[in-house]
Amino acid sequence: MIEIHNQPRGSGKTTEVIKRMKDDVNLVCLVHSNRVKELYPSELRHRLFTFDQFDIRTIDRLRVRKAIVDEGLIGSKVSIANMYYKLGHAGKETVVFGTDI
User: Fold this and answer.
1) What is d(CA 52, CA 50) in angstroms, rounded to the nearest whole number?
2) Closest-CA residue to 86 (of 47, 45, 48, 57)
């Protein structure tokens, strides 16, 4: 299942993702760049992966059921679709926060 939150820029998407990650230690987050990873508190960074680093085996080893994608509506449509396919195929719930440009 994919749950999409299409919100405007500056509406607090990353803040919401950080809150959810603090509330649930079983969440991982996928972001589009290392620069975005720096916006997150250091205690959460071990559960952050860039789209380039994304590997479903790593997420399976962490035994998570849910992944959050921050700004998951930007970038190569093919690579994003591939990432969503892999998450769905592995049975991971996916929550996407992004802005459709």
Assistant:
1) 5
2) 57
Name the burial class of residue 6, with classes exposed (0-12), middle (13-18) and buried (19+) by CB atoms within 10 angstroms of its CB: exposed
Q: What is the pLDDT of residues 65-81, one digit of tens each?
A: 888 888 765 666 777 78
Q: What is the DSSP letter of 11?
A: S
Side-chain-facing half-sphere of 77: CA atoms under 13 Å: 2
Contact between residue 50 and residue 33 where contact means Cβ atoms under 8 Å apart: yes
Q: Letter for the amino acid at 27?
A: L
The pair of structure tokens assigned to 73 is 């509506």
